[in-house]
Amino acid sequence: MSITRREAVLGALGLGAAALARPALAQGSATAPAYPTRTVTVIVPFAPGGSTDFVARLLSQQLSAQLGQQFVVDNRAGASGTVAQAILARARPDGYTLAVVPNGTFAMAPFMFERLPYDNATAFAPIGMLATNAMFICVNPSGPYKTLADLLQAAREKPGTISYASAGSGVANHLGVELMLDMSNTSMLHVPYRSGAQGVQAVLAKEVALSFVDSVTAVPYLRSGELWALAVTSAERSKEAPDVPTVAESGLAGYRASTDFGLFAPAGTPEAIVNQLAGAARRIMLSAEVREKLAPLSIDPVGGTPEEFRPYAAQEMEKWGALIRKRNIKPE
Fold first, then answer.
1. Which tops the pLDDT comparison, 114 or 235?
2. What is the pLDDT of residues 51-82, one digit of tens each?
3. What does 213-279 look like in DSSP terms, one character per residue?
4. Measured between alpha carbons, how far is 299 from 261 in angstroms, rounded to an integer?
5. Do 120 and 320 meet the contact criterion of CB atoms below 8 Å apart?
6. Run of H or E including 66
7. How far apart are CA 32 and CA 14, in angstroms?
């Protein structure tokens, strides 16, 4: 995505936040105090400008409009998001500190570190899944691979020689490749870069053969013809590139490796507050206004419930933890 386009989309966040719903001012009861009655902090585990930050700011502005108090984003980057998670784990469980976190942080990163200052399985209260963002398996259009079958066949014939870029060891676009390699019983050469954008440039320059690229970044390159997508990593085809098959359709049944954004509170947050936030977030994410704002970034809103999100989060942790242990993936 160009800087101009990203700035335009980010700027659109300021428009129409109050149109979704009139503020629902907090009202208490004899047994449950009013919520919220003051500013709520929403932690983001990465620097401003990325897809997690975008989703968090969009949600926070809409929550402010719905609930009548300010929801303010606080970016706390570091250690694959675990710095932010540690802050959330230490926060008072009163609903005034929340976090928007991708599965790369809550389901992958904890297994990359020998010690964490929190218990990932018990420190948090999942509120709901907000949205999902698929990745595309991208290659240079002038290269030899036109389908995922082509790529995997070449990997079988020349194990460990085909190179792929990632944004670092243990991040989503690295583990997405590792899951594909594990399921297909193939091997490739991992070349980590400092960012996903650098990985894209490496594919364009033919320094590497491929990279898993998030749809926010990939779709403009696919439309311009600068990149070619072999497959999309989501369970269903992307609305932005419907002609690109899924990895599962391409021969690896059951494969899925998307970036999913969840809303969390500290463990022990009152159930009434969790349910209030979950209901508000669900209404926001499934509204026509928010769908329209997410569409240019190829992010699909979900708006799940706590009951749906809790088992999903547990399954994600089991899935990626098992893969990291099996393939002995370590931070670099």
1. 235
2. 899 999 999 999 999 999 999 999 998 888 89
3. EEHHHHHHHHHHTSSEEEEE-SSS--TTSTTSPBTTTTT-TT----EEEEEEEETT--HHHHHHHHH
4. 10
5. no
6. helix 51-67
7. 33
